[in-house]
Amino acid sequence: MNGEPTHGPTDETHPETGSQTGSATSAPGGTDTPGHRLTAGLTIGSRVVVRYRLEEGEGAAATDFVGELVARNADFLVVDTRTERVKLIRADVLAAKDVPPPASRTGRAHERVSADDLEKLMAKGWQAVDRGGVGDWVLRASDGFTGRANSALVVGDPSLPVAKAIDFAERWYADRGRPAIFQVHGASGFDPAEQPAVAELLERGYVVGGGHESWQRVLVMTGLSAAVPPLTEQSAPVTADAQLQLDWLTTYAEQRPVVPGATEAVLTGSDGQLFLSVRDPGTNAIIGLARLAIHPGWAGIFGLWVHPDHRRSGVATTIVSAAAMVARENNMPAMYIQVSGDNAAGVAFWSDLGFTVHHEYTYVAKASA
Ligand SMILES: CC(C)(COP(=O)(O)OP(=O)(O)OC[C@H]1O[C@@H](n2cnc3c(N)ncnc32)[C@H](O)[C@@H]1OP(=O)(O)O)[C@@H](O)C(=O)NCCC(=O)NCCS
Question: Biased-composition ranges for Polar residues (predicted)?
Fold first, then answer.
């Protein structure tokens, strides 16, 4: 059976036109039946490859569809390939999996992804509680917990004139009682004001950085998991927990503003994450931690922190070495991190591990946001 091109509305929420709250991985309108387990982990909005049976019978011809999964239910998958939208009957899906974003330029695994694709990937590594969209733009809200999870990610084509897209986003945030904040990115050293969306926002009284020093310029740095030094016999033991434990959360909350509920939801909201920590052997208190977000081909590190009394003794390096080991063992050659441009220690740390700046972003908001 052929994949059937479809251009009409699908039977479930499209992530870019509607709003979703909570897990984007569930299959609205029905649970997966056992015969459909192969596709159970697929995430709407992800790039997927689907091996699809073209005819009945053993040894029958099959083909692969590669593209963005835009909708799914118990009976169908809808995939936007480069050339068309196809509606695939799930009973004829032989195998399917999420795959890394495509290479858009030459370079090594951590260099060849486009900034847009990396931004979309990173948004899944720090999944907002409430999500919507305007075309490719991703609208995110999480009760104010972090700029990333409470801003409109300006990527790709909003499929509306920019002013109308901004109107839509402003209404979306106003409906939630939240200020509209826009995250815009560009090459290293880019001038945000040159982007049409930012020019429009500046006209409306928004300012680059939104009045926050740490929002002015955030560096997205990428590196190879294979280039991170391995753990040694001298390395402190690192705990990697798939569950968010109370003492990890408490230690995290001691060093940054948190929003009960939203913080736990964002920390645990990706398709896969690990909570890493190093403890003081004497007191058993956590002295260093990080969260590892897991993607096809990519690992992202969030919230890396070492207690001030234990800095410059290799704790962060040990944590990242453990994260890179997990990445290498799980087919994730590329790693990303996001660090404020004004965080000299953070930038020095990542540079020391061979990470380089892939692109930068800034937040554009009203000064009161
Ligand atoms: C950045 C941070 C995680 C580093 O932790 P750490 O355990 O002190 O780092 P390490 O001891 O493993 O440092 C490894 C190397 O990174 C570089 N580095 C680390 N801190 C640095 C600093 N303050 N200034 C310059 N270089 C630094 C050095 O090259 C260092 O090697 P060296 O000590 O032999 O010179 C820690 O300072 C921290 O928690 N800061 C606050 C939170 C933060 O900024 N997190 C990073 C955001 S992505």
Answer: 16-28
In a domain, 312, yes or no: yes
For a mutational test of ligand 1's pocket, the pick from 312, 321, 355, i.e. the residue with the most ligand atoms closer than 8 A to its C-beta, is 312
| Other beta carbons less than 10 A from residue 136's beta carbon | 16
Distance 129 CA to ligand 1 centre (A): 31
- Could you list the mean pLDDT of each consecutive 10-residue stretch along the chain, which spans 369 residues? 37 32 28 34 84 78 92 93 94 91 90 96 96 95 97 96 98 98 97 97 95 90 97 96 97 96 97 96 97 96 98 97 96 96 96 97 89
How many angstroms is it from 350 CA to the middle of ligand 1?
8
Q: Are 136 and 14 in contact (CB under 8 A)?
A: no
| DSSP tag of 231 | P
Which domain does 134 fall in, by range?
115-215
Mark whether 232 and 347 lie in a shared domain. Answer: yes
CB 334 within 8 A of CB 109: yes
What is the spatial distance between Cα 121 and Cα 144, in angstroms, rounded to a whole number? 21
State how many domains the chain has: 3
Ligand 1 centre from 319 Cα, in Å? 12
301: number of Cβ within 10 Å:
26
In whole angstroms, give the CA distance from residue 44 to residue 13. Answer: 10
Question: In terms of domains, do 280 and 309 share one?
Answer: yes
Taking the C-alpha atoms of residue 24 and residue 207, their distance in angstroms, rounded to an integer, is: 32
Biggest CA pair distance of the chain: 66
pLDDT at 39: 42
Q: Are residues 77 and 189 in the same domain?
A: no
Q: 3-state DSSP call for residue 283?
A: coil
Place of tokens 């790709």: 156
Place of tokens 């020019």: 199
